[in-house]
Fold this protein.
Amino acid sequence: MTRVWMLPVLMLLCGGLVATGEAVDGSPAEAVFSFLLFALLAFATSPLVFPRSVGAAEAGRRAAVDGRPVVYWRPGCAYCLRLRVRLGVRGRRAHWVNIWRDAEGAAVVRGATGGDETVPTVVVGSEVRVNPDPAWVRARL
């Protein structure tokens, strides 16, 4: 759990340090802007951007019923964030599995990628894509 929040907390701490330095130098407007920028980066790298994760077994059962994609991801992954942002609101319809919280999900990814934990890995039926084009995933939603 703590590993998931390390990068966002680091972003907030850095933002606080930069903002404090700018405030001490007499630039309160720049200090506020810098802190807000770092807070935005902290939010973007946090798990809050992603829909609620389910376990790999549950995602597999749901996908078998509704045919929607299963997206294996991990917090702090820039490619996962890119996919999530490009999917927009429709991305909530996919089944999201955080491989840092679900060992079975990590095993699925390692099996699909030849032993690596490369994410995002998207499974639709029997088709597996590693770091797929967001348009491909959107078409399957």
About this structure: The longest helix spans residues 2-24. The beta strands are 70-73, 95-98, 121-124, 127-130. The two ends are 29 Å apart (CA to CA).
